[in-house]
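Class prep. Sample record?

___
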Amino acid sequence: MSMTIMEAMEVRHSVRQYTGQKIPDEIAGRLKEEIAACNEESGLHIQLVTDEPKAFGSMMAHYGKFSGVRNYIALVGPRSGKLDELCGYYGERLVLLAQALGLNTCWVAMTFSKGAAKKRLSIAGGEKLVIVISLGYGAVQGVPHKSKRAEDLAPDSGQAPEWFRAGVAAAMLAPTAMNQQKFRLTPGDARVRAQSLGGFCSKIDLGIVKYHFEQGSGKGPSIWAEG
């Protein structure tokens, strides 16, 4: 990889217009390896789809201002109360790897054809397609999203340890639906509480935020308080 995960966080922005350039086999293979690792850890059924223009060939995709999309990562998994958060967490892990490999991405919840995507996917009984991530070489590199202040997202961060503040700084870079940033991070004696404040795709967003926080703070998944 040509950059670290933290560097990928800083330069990665949502991209909706792609050149159509083919993803080299070597890079696709690296993504498939990481998808397999994510599926093994999480129990999800994440899948990479390449050279498939139909999911983003609908009017919905044009309404969403997507063009040139021929590749995507499909976040699929067994139905459960944790499914959305798991998709956010592991999907963002793949997003940042893709960025480090020189690709661009965008989280896509609505403006694609689920019917067309499902024709290329393997979805078992009891599984659900939650969301997809467009993938490829961007015609543009996107622009940074506006962010709320650290004290808005983590009101108690001022007196918190440096690792917590570093985690919050990374969480501020996390993509969220409609840039709503509806999450709250609260430090405890030994663990951190992460809360969704509701809203569209907020549980997916919470998973994305948790992955960013872990990378920024240097802590693992055991840092999270239950509930």
